[in-house]
Structure formats: structure tokens, C-alpha cells
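Whiteboard transcription, Tuesday session. T.W. wrote the C-alpha cells on the left side:
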């Protein structure tokens, strides 16, 4: 169940996504030419909104697909 209804979350995402820089799925300068895929910005955004709405820590809103470390790192970026 999402933290906010779709009618509120989608306009927020549209405004937030316009501020994000374009990134590649894989880094071209990786020494082996491959690494783990980057977790989608939309997924991280939904986890951050969930933590803010419920007032909980990132550890409680993390899932196996998006860890609390990933959420923190992306918020810092």
C-alpha cells in the first residue's frame, strides 16, 4: 500500500524527477565493464516518501529491493 494516493504521489514525482540529472544504468568507466544495476530513482523516491509520511527511520521503510544505505546515499546526493 503506498504512503500517499497515486493522485498526490505522481505530481510530486514529476516535479522531483525534473530536478534529477540524467544517469546511465551502468557506469562506462567501471574497470570490468559491469556492476550492479542502479536502483531506479522512482523506487528510492517512494521509500523516502514512505519514511517521511510515517515518521519512521529509513531502516523501517527499506525492503529487500532497496536498502536503507541506498536510501541514505541517494538523499545525500
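and on the right, the sequence the group agreed on:
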Amino acid at each position: 500500500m503506498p504512503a500517499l494516493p497515486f493522485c498526490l504521489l505522481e505530481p510530486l514525482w514529476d516535479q522531483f524527477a525534473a530536478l534529477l540529472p540524467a544517469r546511465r544504468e551502468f557506469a562506462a568507466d567501471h574497470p570490468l565493464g559491469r556492476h550492479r544495476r542502479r536502483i531506479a530513482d522512482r523506487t528510492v523516491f517512494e521509500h523516502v516518501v514512505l519514511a517521511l509520511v510515517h515518521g519512521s527511520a529509513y531502516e523501517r521503510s527499506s525492503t529487500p529491493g532497496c536498502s536503507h544505505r541506498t536510501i541514505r546515499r541517494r538523499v545525500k546526493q
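Someone added at the bottom: The chain is about 55% helix and 0% strand.
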